[in-house]
Specification:
Shape: globular
CATH topology of one domain: Serine Threonine Protein Phosphatase 5, Tetratricopeptide repeat
Number of helices: 32
CATH superfamily of one domain: Tetratricopeptide repeat domain
Helix content: 55-70%
Radius of gyration: 28 Å
Amino acid sequence: MRGPQRPDPFSAGDPPLELTAFVGRRPELAGLTDLLGGARLVTVTGVGGVGKSRLAARLAAGWTDGSGRVELAPVRDAQFVEYAVAEALGLTDHTARPPREALLERLAGRPVLLVLDGFEHLLDACAELTAELLRKLPRLRVLAVGRRPLGLAGERLFPLAPLAEDEAVELFTDRARAQGLEVSDGPEVRELCRRLEGIPLALELAAGRLRALSPAQLLQRLDDRFRLLATSGWEGAPRPVPGGPPSRHRTLRTAIGWSHELCTPAERLLWARLSVFAQTFDLEAAEYVCSGDGLPAEDVLDVLSELVAQSVVTREETPAGPRYRMLDTVRAYGAEWLEGIGDAGRLRRRHRDWYLGLATWCELDWFSPRQGEVAARVEAELPNLRAALEFCLTEPEEAHLGQYLAGSLWFCWVGCGRLAEGRRWLARSVELESGYEQSRLKALWVLGYVAILQGDTVPALAALRECREQAERFADPAAVAYAEHRTGCLALVTDDLARAETLLRSALDRYQEIGELNSNVLMGQVELAMARAFQGDLPDAVRLCEDVRRVCEDHGERWARSYALYVLAYAARLEGAPDRARELLTDCLANAHAFHDLLGSVLSMELLALVTAAQGEPAEAALLQGAAGRMWPSVGLPLFGSAYFNAPHDQCEAIARQALGDARYEECAAEGARLDRATAVDRALGRGPVRPLGALPTPRGPMPHGGGAANRTESTEPATDPARGSRAT
């Protein structure tokens, strides 16, 4: 199974995943497109449920220059706004620099449309980020979606009105047909649409009731509720404001409340409890989190199905399987009820417990044939995992669980390309005094590991030293082994090979003593093999990595296996078997790219470039070097300045420059630097044209002298390792 696929940030948007027809809005789409043609910041405003998000998604899907849509509703911490934007644009960055720097670098000169949806609760952070992006990226356009403006200079507003009567009737009857019901556009339907003021969400909720009530009955019940609210003033609806359209707020509120009243007690209870989920959730999570106290677990599916039928919840297919979603307005209504009945704290703890268990299961299953499934599952559950982390790190007495959760997700931070986000959660967690040293030790060694991979050696060494000292103090042998292992990894990437070998051998012995076997242990063996290979002992390096490959294949492990293949390819090339080296490297690169592992991808691409040059294709080798050079800034210090890890690059450049001459080498490398990561990987794997550069002359030029597009000022990272595995240290 492949890892989860992330959006390509610079291609035209895919059509939105619309489970129902997109009705009307042609004039609005045309007007919004025209407005964006002349303004770089446009904000679509309007009441909740009026269709702002769907209109923006439809427009972005047709934006030919490429777009990215950021759903900000699940983001609770303003510091994570930048991460959300980077993720939505598919920008994987492993370095320790702020995500904003990576955004500015990667978006420079590109005519991208950025959609910021649901920013109201993060107004200041979103406004500040948007202002800087627009100021420094002259070809960027931003389409904001919210109930209020961002308040920036140059912002153009696009107030979105409800549907016109005919479009409202069309929407209502279309949703009826989707349920197998035929409803005419008679007077009752038209009056109902008028009473609901053409608000799409209100119409969807009303249509969801047609299996039980006729349009005339729906209209009667809606009128009764309007009269009730007019006399009671209940529900906290906003009061009329002169010159504004406040009735629409009350209309939507009324429609949601009315739909809520038509629910059975079990449906109301589940509605309220589902509000604890961030973004989407699956059935198993709903059954665990929401069951009990009046709602048996075996009834959750039936009740959830009724909420889907009533359009309170939507069901969608994802790479991780079927998932469910509540619109933010509907979720907010449920959250109010949950608070009102005094059950919010208990449900948030149950939510936390489920995702703590999920992270533990995923950590164990990372070392199994289900590694790809784990990657896809974690990708889908990130909003909920973040919510659980936020809960743990802000609630008294929960810090140790936050430390454990942040540490247990090492495979997500490291194996699935989320180093920067992981480091933020880990650093935040270890600052807290939890009283549970074992959990903090785990977070510490994972923090050190992540910092190594980012090329940030001083904080890495500090975290690992503290972990080692505290682990010995508290007699935690697993934490000692992991701290020693990661310190050995740090020695490896800084070319202290003798120390690296000593530490890695000691850590592997400790793992064996405590019975630890997982992806981390195997990566320790791969790193030891690298140290041996760099010291000239290729037979020992091959022996170690063949053993790793055998264990990985026995357990279905793909991630650590890809690094073993890298070392085997390194040895095969030195032993004069370039075809074998190429076969191993293409396997390595395909797996690393599937898991969004930038380090594994760029290391294998660098070595593949050298093999390509040695096989008589210097122009293609230079192109691959240029592509790798574009990737390195997102990884960290290229190869950490390591002479050993840099050797394939330097050798390849020497061969290619001598064969092509400096000018032609630079031309080919520049061509490679223009390729995005997915295209570059396809090219390296032989899935693209062999030579789109045309017929390439091979003049003899002077020996290489450094410099050039592919001569990076930074070095490269080590063929690195993961952290943790099967137990909570």
